[in-house]
Write a structure and sequence with these properties.
By secondary structure, the chain is an alpha/beta fold. 31% of the residues lie in helices and 10% in strands. Strands 5-4-3-6-8-7 form a six-stranded mixed beta sheet. A five-stranded mixed beta sheet has the order 9-11-10-12-13, with helices on both faces. A two-stranded antiparallel sheet has the order 1-2. Helix 3 packs across helix 4 and helix 12 packs across helix 14. It is elongated. The two termini are 37 Å apart.
Amino acid sequence: MALAVTSSSSSTAASTSFFSRIASSSDPKAPQFGSLKVPERPNGSSGVVNLTQRRSLVRRVNAEPQRRDSIVPLAATIATPEVSEKQDEEDYEQLARDLENASPLEIMDKALEKFGNDIAIAFSGAEDVALIEYAHLTGRPFRVFSLDTGRLNPETYRLFDDVEKRYGIHIEYMFPDAVEVQALVRTKGLFSFYEDGHQECCRVRKVRPLRRALKGLKAWITGQRKDQSPGTRSEIPVVQVDPVFEGMDGGIGSLVKWNPVANVKGNDIWTFLRTMNVPVNALHSQGYVSIGCEPCTRPVLPGQHEREGRWWWEDAKAKECGLHKGNIKQDAAQLNGNGVAHENGTATVPDIFDTQNVVSLSRSGIENLAKSEERKEPWVVVLYAPWCQFCQAMEQSYVELADKLAGSGVKVGKFRADGEQKEYAKSELQLGSFPTILLFPKHSSRPIKYPSEKRDVDSLMAFVNALR
């Protein structure tokens, strides 16, 4: 896997002077895009537009021979001081307000300046090429990663190649786990999502690979826009503490999410792409607007919203694959205290931690486990709600923990503790918030609550090993 890094021969300059140089360009032949003047380039040219005189501080890394699960493989060895979640949220909420009226170029420059090699652009093969062009125009080094689900259109793969050649970068590809894909296809077939919804397939092919990628970063850059999806993206800030995923430091608030084009309309994105003469997906000329996997994407007709071409057999107001679940807003009048749209307080989303190595406990099962004073083996149990974004975020690490403990004499279980079970879990099982992780030792009636916000598999394993 290679770092996608661009560099320009240059010395550092203040961000304000960088943008003032753009605005003061006197080239009479430069076409205009807003207040940005861009020198004309020959058609098909791959030359670099030098807007700054910065020198790259990041060394180019060539392809590595062994598999890496994170796009920053050594991230786990880096120690950073802990920062409280509340302070992070307050800081980035203020920064979002400060940048609300900033241009995408200014926001991109700020993101790259602030996080350096610990931030990467998520590239889907659609209009996200605009993000790469903005990053290129800053003159700063930048990285790009993409999720290859194994079911993309041929045109998307060709665009990946065109983009790498155009910008002189190597896209860092993340792939789904082959064993999980095999199990899904063998059990439910190649097109189960047409019958029971796209969430399960997306979770295997997109969400879990993304989670692995983000574990090696402190921040990521997305192409989300407010006008993309009715009901899910209308309140996207330009920068936020990621509400779903964790970064390299682990725990809630450890990852920052930048959305430089959040306030840009789709038509303006396309004006920019045409002005800059950048490569785009050939499917766009065939009526495709929002492009994902081949079986789940189709062209839209004139007058249709772009998101109607994705998962067209499902509700148009909630079309998210899981990568941006934190955006979803619901009418407060339809929600109960858990934030779940259901009359009895239970969720309508698919279950999680669904693997043969995690035992699903009923109410009577968890009661018997809690009352027993002489267990045959210790148990680790997560109290969860499938709609909870933090439970979803730790799904892969908990499943991996179960796989590691298989055959070790430690049982791994889950108990759904929302809805009717919530009061019991709060009074008898120490539930404070979701997820709550308990260890039931072999010779003790009282369960021990996992105290940390770090829910990576190594931290969970250390907790189990210390008390088993």
